[in-house]
Amino acid sequence: MNLITWFLVGIFIIIILGIASNTGQSSILNIQDQLFIINCPYPIYEGVATDVDISGFTVIYNVTHDRDINGNFTSNDQDKVGTEFDCTVTNHLFGVSVSTRQYGATAFSAIPYGWVGYVADWLSHTLQNAGATFILIAYFVTPSNFDIMGFTLDDVGGLALIVIIAVYVFCYIPIAIFVYKAISPFVGGF
Fold this sequence. Notes:
Elements: H1 3-20, H2 25-38, E1 48-55, E2 58-64, E3 82-90, E4 93-101, H3 113-141, E5 147-148, E6 151-152, H4 158-187
Antiparallel strand pairs: 1-2, 3-4, 5-6
């Protein structure tokens, strides 16, 4: 068998293991937790979220525009507020807290510190989503979320654990060799 065949066999076995090892109840709950974190809304620059509720893995809400920090109507851009969402998961129970922020605020009519706060909230939310996405990917390509018929890695004996890890290593070796052979002609110096 050539290298491409070994690469495809390794990918195929990892896909089968990723699907089979994430079928237990605790694995599905862990995946749902990450999906909820990924679906948490980004901050709203100008608008207040009202009627906030959780439906499945999604936060649903209505947006009211042109409001100040006290909830009153305003046409002054510096007084308008935005909304930040903080989604949490505790013991597989979803929660969301909503807070208003003055993203349009400026200091001395020149320094847009509210906008800087918005960028910081947006960036922290993006990094939170990236972390949840990487965890979700890790659940499928590693045995970290292993759960078959209620048996997790904690329940598996030493020899069975070695076999599980050996199967993953057996799959990743041809993938690594294939990637090395595919990249090495273009890198130089190897």
